[in-house]
C-alpha cells in the first residue's frame, strides 16, 4: 500500500464541508451563496467560514453583485482551485482503488 | 449531485491520519504499533491519540503483549471497524464517481 497519498490529501479541501463546496463548484460555472447553503444544508456562518478558508487558499473567488436590487453573492472555482481539486479527487481515487484491491 | 454523501462521511475515519491507519489495518490481519508508525511516518504521540479515538469508536482493538521479553503493542480492526470502513470507502467511491461524470 502506498501511504504517501494520505499525507498528500490537502487539509483545506479534505474537510467534509469544504469538499462539498469544492465538488458543487467543480460541477457548475458559478453558484450563489444561497444555492450552496441550501444544497449542503449549512448555516450562513458555517458556509462563510469555509468560503473564507477556500478564498485564502486561492481556490474560490467570491463576488458580491446585485440582482433585482438585492445583494447577490456568487462563488466560482479559480483555475488554481480546479487544479487542486482534480489532484485531490485523483488521490481519493487511488485510495479507493488501493482499498478495493 | 447527491450532497448527502459529504455529510455521511464519518469524522472519526475521515481525518487523514486515521484514514491511513484504518486503510493499513483493513489490509492486514494485525499490525504492530511500530509498523503503523513507520508506514505512516507518525510520531508516537500522534499515533497514540488517533488509536485512542479509533478504539473509543469501537473500530480498533489494541493488545499489549510481550515478544522476546519486550513489550509489543498490536492493533487490529474490529468487525464494527471493518463495516464502518467499507461504508466509508463506498462513500468516497461515490464522491469520486460524481466528480468524474
Key structural traits:
homodimer; 101 residues; alpha+beta; Arc Repressor Mutant, subunit A; three-stranded antiparallel sheet; 6 helices; 3 strands; 18% strand
Mind telling me the CATH class of chain A? Mainly Alpha
Strand arrangement, largest sheet of chain A? 1-3-2
Which shape of chain A, going by the Cα principal axes? elongated
- The CATH topology of chain A is given as Arc Repressor Mutant, subunit A
Could you please describe the fold and organization of this structure?
The structure is a homodimer of 101-residue chains. Chain A is α+β, with helices and mostly antiparallel strands and 101 residues long. Chain A has one domain (4-96): Arc Repressor Mutant, subunit A, CATH 1.10.10.10. In chain A, 62% of the residues lie in helices and 18% in strands. Chain A has 6 helices and 3 strands; from the N terminus they run αααβααββα. In chain A, strands 1-3-2 form a 3-stranded antiparallel sheet. The longest helix of chain A has 22 residues, at 79-100. The N and C termini of chain A lie close together (10 Å). Chains A and B meet through α3 and α6 of A and α3 and α6 of B.
Which helices and strands, and how do they pair?
The structure is a homodimer of 101-residue chains.
Chain A: H1 4-8, H2 11-14, H3 16-26, E1 31-32, H4 33-40, H5 44-56, E2 60-67, E3 70-77, H6 79-100
Amino acid at each position: 500500500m502506498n501511504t504517501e497519498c494520505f499525507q498528500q490529501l490537502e487539509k483545506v479541501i479534505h474537510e467534509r464541508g469544504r469538499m462539498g463546496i469544492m465538488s458543487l463548484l467543480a460541477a457548475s460555472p458559478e453558484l450563489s451563496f444561497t444555492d450552496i447553503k441550501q444544497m449542503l444544508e449549512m448555516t450562513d456562518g458555517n458556509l462563510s467560514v469555509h468560503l473564507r478558508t477556500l478564498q485564502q487558499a486561492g481556490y474560490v473567488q467570491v463576488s458580491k453583485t446585485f440582482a433585482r436590487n438585492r445583494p447577490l453573492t456568487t462563488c466560482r472555482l479559480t483555475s488554481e482551485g480546479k487544479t487542486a481539486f482534480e489532484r485531490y479527487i485523483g488521490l481519493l481515487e487511488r485510495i479507493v482503488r488501493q482499498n478495493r484491491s
